[in-house]
Each structure stands twice: as structure tokens, then as C-alpha cells.
Amino acid sequence: MLSRVSRNSMDVRRLARVILVLIVAELLTAVSGLAAGTANSYHYKGDIQFDLRQVPFSRFGSYLAISDMSQFQGPQKKEGVFLRTMHAGGRTAFRFELLHDGHPVSFTTSAAPTLLTFTAEDGSVEICFDGPERLRMRGKGVQLRLVAVDGWAEEYPGKKWQISTSAMKYMLWPFEGNIAVSSDGGQSGADTLTITFSSASNDGSFDAELDAYVSVWQPHNEARAFSAVEQDEHSAYAHWLNSMPPVSPELGQGAELAAYINWESVVAADGNFKRPAMLMSKNWMASVWSWDHTFNAMALSLSSADLGWNQFMLPVDVQDEKGAFPDMWNAESIAWEYSKPPVHGWALAWMMRHGAFRDTAHLNQIYEPLARWTDWYFQYRDSNGDGLPEYGHGDSSGWDNSTVFRVGDLIESPDLSAYLVIQMDTLADLATRLGKPADAQRWRERSDSLLNKMLQRFWDGHEFVAYRVIDGHEIHSKSLLLSMPIILGKRLPEDVRTALVKDLKQRAEQSPYGVPTEPPDSPFYQPDGYWQGPIWAPATMILVEGLDDSGEHEFADSLRVKFCRMAQAAGMGENFDALTGKSLRDPAYTWTSSVYLLFANELEGENSVRN
User: Fold this and answer.
1) pLDDT recorded at residue 24
2) Which tens digits make up the pLDDT trace of 71-112?
3) Distance CA 597, CA 146 (A)
4) How buried is 523 (Cβ within 10 angstroms: 0-12 exposed, 13-18 middle, 19+ buried)?
5) CB 256 within 8 A of CB 249
6) What does DSSP say about strands 474-475 and 205-213: parallel, antiparallel, or unpaired?
7) Given phi > 0 = left and psi -120 to 50 = alpha, else beta, which region is 462?
8) pLDDT digits (tens, 9 = 90+) for 419-433
């Protein structure tokens, strides 16, 4: 007869086995559900074709890009297809021409992520990257001429020619075929050079290379077959695609374009870039601005965490001794005329909520720089000493020409206070995680104090207003900028939150694509008015996150869907016409592609970052 102890032991073992079976069953259910969800997600293929007038042909880590510049803006607009360098803010190096029997012929372009083709009636030229700073070029039936308007040539042994320009140097030579270099013979300054690759055989083909460098050319092994080089590039791009966040098949086409734009927009660490940097574009916005980069960091935190952290830390590398982040910078230059809004605490909190950068190693890197950036506003951007930081110029708000700034530039605006409230909340969280309880308490108290001041100063009982600092003039504006305090979500009093949501829903009714930055019924609305009408990715991202935090999930998702459908149809433009959905300004802008990937993933359901 079993003792009571033995029976109890057996009961415990049976119970343990039952619990184990239930746990295993639950795990299997979860895994099968996730697998089913993954099967239903879009499979990135990398087989897109894009318009070289809108999206440059480049690759991860490279300062080189090939663009049809016929639709560029301002003085950069040129007719033709050009090789450009992102050094010195984006300089033209060579114009591509195809020749037949020595005469220029017209050609069309076909661009895919790893192969660019020029096709003429009598032949074609193919171009691919071979790593970040090398191009392979092969042709048949035609000659390829590169025209340089800035530079001088030096001949080296082995049919090699170095072309030196003010931005970079280039070594060119044929593996198969001939090279001919000629100059206009200018006596002062740089010559106009032409470099022509042509066939040396009856089959009419050539195979050549271009290496780009700043200082000294490094000789390397003899060339591999063009097809092997292109396959390696294809494999490198496929590796990037494999890390992309899951999206639904409905939004897959746009995700393909967004993934490529983000991939090709990264340049290697150099000069002011102490780490790999995702430029805003390799069209004409070929720099980093110190709020644009946060949206790229957020998207990359879902797929390439190290690269995402690098994007987030870019301004920290160039932070000044007072704590300021610059307005914009590239490898060679930094602009300090303006600042950009302090959305960094909000972005970091978002990434931490979604599983990234919670460890002390990352938090120790950012805590002090983020604290100095926050304190900078209170020490150097509060000229009247009322505890409410101000913008010194419209450009410092990120909303350069918002109608809030029509009456002057030194403005106290509620969005700035809202960002700083969240930033200090984030600093309190970081201080707690890092074992700094006194700091955490101080940040919480400062955040609460600023929130109270913000509501007392800017909320008039019906809407948020701004103030001109010089004379206290109250500013009423229909600019969406004054709705950005929705970012505070549940931190706002219920009546304020309710009024903001009601107004945003009314604004959304005026556009089929989202919420315009200036409503179409405003006398200041302009279809292509920059921040006076068009729809922008960052504004939409801030709105939907604030709406989610306010419990308005259905409304938030409706804006995500509208934005994604618009960008998938029009491309990843810098901004969009609120009434037509047309892409405006720079047509390959990374904060747009990053927000697209974030929204598309959040709409994906089980495989969403929200789960």
C-alpha cells in the first residue's frame, strides 16, 4: 500500500507531466501560428525595376550613384545620365554617352537593384557595382564615352588612366578592349575630358572598370568575370532583403522599393560620419538632418539593429560642447544655422518598447548626450526665461515654412514642449534602468512641470496656439504643427485629447491620403507648398503613434493604410500632394521609405512589431 507521501509525490509528478504537455502544446500552437503568418507575409524578391530619373542606381556603403538628372531641382538639373559622388554634398563626375561608329546615339535605361543597362539600337552597355567604390562596365555593339567637365587625366602603365576631380579620384581601364582619353586642352583650370571604351575585337565587346577613391588607388587582383561580380552583388542585396520586416502581400510592391532605397542610401563611415550613415537621399538631399535620421533608426531597429543604432547615434558623434545637435551634415561639412526638433527621446522610447536597445551598454552610450541635448533647449533656447523653450527659426522646427512662422521666427510652440516632455520621460526611464534613482526623479519632476506649463500656456480651451516671443503675440494657425502635441497621447487631459482627435478626424476628411500639413480650406494652402499643404511621413508617424496611445487605433490604422497605398502608387517622395497623392520634391527619400516599412509591418497582424 502506497504511503500518503508516495501518492502525493506521484500526484505531483502527474501534475508536472500534465503541465509540461500543456506548455509544449501551447508552444507548438504559437510556432505553427507564426509559421502560418510568415507564409502569408510578402516574400521579398528583389526583382523590381525603377526609374533612374527618380531613384538612383547605387549600393550599400557607396558614395557613388548613377542618376538621370533631367528631373533634378535647381542648379543640379542637367540633361543626361551621370555618375555622381556623394562627397562634397553630391558632385557630378561623368556624363554617360553611347557611341556607334564614333557618333553619339540615343539610348534607354533599365535599372534594377544590382544591374543597370543602357540600350541603343545597335548595342548595349551593362553596369554593376563590385563592392562600394568600384564599377564594372561591359558593352557590345556600341562604345561607352564618359565626359568629365571637372578634372585632369594622368596615364598609368597597363592602359590605366587616373582622373582627378575636386571631390574624388577615379582610375579607369579596360580588361578587354581599348581606352582613349582626350582633352579640350584648356590652359587654365580643369579640362573637359572624354574617356571612351571600345572593342578591340571583331565581336564588338569591351569590359572595363572604374575605381573611386579620395587619396591613393590600391591595385587589386585581376578582374573576375562580370557575371560573377553581378552575382555577388545580387547575393549581398538578397541578404539585406532577408532582414526586412514582414509586410502583407498587398503592400509588398511598395516594400520592395522602400527596401532598395534604404539599402542604396547608406554610405560608409568617413569624415564627419563616424559610422555608416543612411543619407536622406542620393539624389540632391545627400546629407543627414538631425531629426530625419531617427525615423530611419526606428525602421532599421526591426531588421538591422546595429545599423539602426548607428543611425540613431549619428548626431551624438558631432554634438557640440554646449549639447546641441547640428541642423545637417555630410562627410565634409556641418551646418549649425538651425537645429531640429528633439524627437530623439520619443524615437528611443519607441525602439525600446519594441524590444531594441534596452541593455545598459546601449543606454550608457546615449544617456549623457540625450541629457545634454535636452538641457540645451532650456539653457540656450528660452530667451524670456519662462521655462518654455522656443524655436529660433521655422527651419529649427523641421516644418520650415509652416504658417505658425508667418508672423516671425522666435516662436514658443506647443509641439516643442511636447517633444521635451516625452524626452524627459525617456530620460527618467533610462536613469531608472541605469541605477540613477535621483536622476530619474528629477527628470520626472521636470517633465511634469513642463507639461503643466505647456497646457496652461498653449491650450486655450479649444485648440493649441503658439506665441511670438518678442511681444507675446498669440498665434492662431491651421498648421498641423499645432496638433503635434497628440504625441503625448494619454499624458494629455481627456478633454484636450478628445478635442485634438476630433479636429484631426475633420482634417483627414479633406484628403483621401491622410492629414495635410495645412488644410485645403486654408487660404495659405499650396499643393506643392512644402509644409503648407503636402502630406509628410514624419508628421503622419507622430500622429498615428499619438493616436494609438490615445486609444484611437482604428483611426491610426486608417492613416497608415492611406499613407502606404499613396506611397506604393507614387513612390517614396519627400512629401506628397494632399489632393492627388503625387510624389513631390526629392523622389527617393529615406524617412518616407522607413515610415512605409514601419507602417506596412504594423499593419501585418501576427507578424507585426506590435505583436
Assistant:
1) 33
2) 999 889 999 999 999 998 788 999 999 999 999 999 999 999
3) 37
4) exposed
5) no
6) unpaired
7) alpha
8) 999 999 999 999 999
Grade residue 23 by pLDDT with cuts at 50, 70 and 90. Answer: very low
Split at pLDDT 50, 70, 90, the class of 120 is very high
The beta-carbon contacts of 520-527 under 8 Å, at least 24 apart in sequence, are 520/578, 520/579, 522/403, 522/478, 524/403, 524/406, 524/478, 527/577, 527/578, 527/579, 527/580
> Which grid cell is 313?
547615434
Residue 559 near residue 543 (C-beta atoms within 8 A) = yes
C-alpha to C-alpha distance for 131 and 115, rounded to whole angstroms: 13
Q: Where are the alpha helices (DSSP H) in 165-251?
A: 226-242
Query: Looking at 238-361, which runs of residues are DSSP E strands?
Result: 266-267, 277-278, 288-289, 328-329, 334-335
Q: What is the pLDDT of residue 185?
A: 60
- How far apart, in whole angstroms, are the C-alpha atoms of residue 200 and residue 177? 4
Calculate the dihedral angle through the C-alpha atoms of 11, 14, 15, 17, rounding to the nearest 10 degrees. Answer: 160
- Exposure string of 529-561, with b = 16+ CB inside 10 Å and e = fewer, is bbbbbbbbbbbbbbbbbbbbbbebeebbbbbbb
Round to the nearest angstrom and report the end-to-end CA distance of the chain.
52
Q: How far apart are CA 515 and CA 535, in angstroms?
A: 6
Please, where are the H alpha helices in 354-490? 360-380, 414-433, 437-458
Q: Would you state the torsion angle of the CA atoms of residues 426, 265, 396, 390, taken in this order, to the nearest 10 degrees?
A: 0
Query: Rounded distance, CA 426 to CA 140, Å?
Result: 59
How big is the chain, counted in residues? 611
| pLDDT over 90, % of the chain | 87
Phi, psi of 455 (to 5 degrees): -65, -40
**pLDDT for 388 beyond 70:** yes
Give the whole-angstrom CA distance, residue 204 versus residue 209: 17
Strands of 33-102, DSSP E = 64-68, 81-85, 91-100
pTM, to two decimals: 0.92
C-alpha span between 318 and 314 (Å, rounded): 7
Which domains, ranges and CATH numbers included, belong to the chain? 64-227 (no CATH), 243-602 (1.50.10.10)
Give 412's contacts (C-beta < 8 A, 6+ positions apart).
386, 388, 389, 390, 391, 457, 458, 466, 467, 469
Burial 431-461 (b: 16+ CB within 10 A, else e): bebeebeebbeebbebbeebbeebbebbbee
H helices, E strands: number in the chain: 13, 25
Q: 162 and 170 in contact (C-beta within 8 Å)?
A: yes
DSSP secondary structure letters along 273-294:
BSS-EE-S-SSS--SEETTHHH
